[in-house]
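User: I'm putting together a small comparison set for a docking exercise, and I want a reference complex before I start. The sequence is below, and the ligand is magnesium ion. Could you produce the 3D structure with the ligand included, as structure tokens?
Assistant: Of course. I'll restate your input first, then give the structure tokens for the complex.
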Amino acid sequence: RYSAGPSAMKREGRSPAAETRQEGSVEVSVVLPMFNEEEVVLRMYRRLKAVAEQLNARYELLFVDDGSSDSTADTILEISLNDESVTGVFLSGHFGKEAALRAGLEYAAGQAIVTMDGDLQDPPELIPEMVRAWRSGVDVVRMRRQSPTPDRHLDFLLYSPRAATVLSLVVNRQRYMKDVIEWAGLRETVITYERQPRVAGRSKWTVAQLLGYSRDGTKTLSSVCARILMLMGFLGFFAGLTYACYILIAPIGWNDPASLVPLTSATPLLFGGCVLYFLGWLAEGMEQRAPPMRHPNFSIRMFARNGRMSAP
Ligand code: UDP
Ligand code: MG
């Protein structure tokens, strides 16, 4: 059924979801990535369901299991079997939040798509306000955290399929999305909200991720090498600069040109440092523009919808 592959379906302008459903029958899709959230899934579902029922819109809820090792996937499957409006998307392995979101978007059929964290840190009660803003005619409704770095986080959003198409071209979504919204001339509304603490479970960030590895697989060994190059370059440049200053300031006397000869040995350090640093800088920039190592859509093996399970 889905053998055509995502790019082929994109070309026809239809998502897999639109293929099996009546065209345009869903107004609002909510996509939630879930990784080891067994303590939260059911609570998330109940709160979200209550809000969705008040929407006055045909809606669907897409729970994406990012290869959880706990009972998250079972719970999602059970919910999707009992509730027509819930779709479970199950990744074959743990691919990271970004990949989970992309996979979910591939199946979202709504005219407005909401993405949000699955741990109730983004209150679902704000969705009606987002939908109202969207109905007034914007492409993107961006939920801006009150604190501490409001514009760096783009987890909680509503967008039209047209905006989704543009944004799907962006590889490192978190980093570039805000710029792309502006660049593409998409109309957006920004709503400020207060992010809540997690209701249960733990944040999925690991120490390695916090040290600069991204968990979505877009950063690899080469970006670590780039960082090392930048560090070496910086140290070299700094050492050269210190040495040069020392030679110039040392009270050997300006009258004796011979005392400036050691400067020639500081020069390669200075220039070498600069070159190394910018080499690392360029390498890192290229790394960020490279496509992800594994395309998330290859990871979908099993797909349940409307009470029926189907395998591609
Ligand atoms: N998540 C995911 N895959 C991951 C990490 C996180 O699907 O590899 C989901 C997670 O289940 C949650 C959301 O992404 O619904 C946000 O994750 P988390 O709460 O760990 O991030 P934080 O809020 O701490 O930034
Ligand atoms: Mg969280």
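Strands lie at 28-34, 59-65, 86-91, 112-115, 140-145, 157-159, 188-193, 300-305, 308-310. The longest helix spans residues 221-249.
User: Thanks, that's exactly what I needed.
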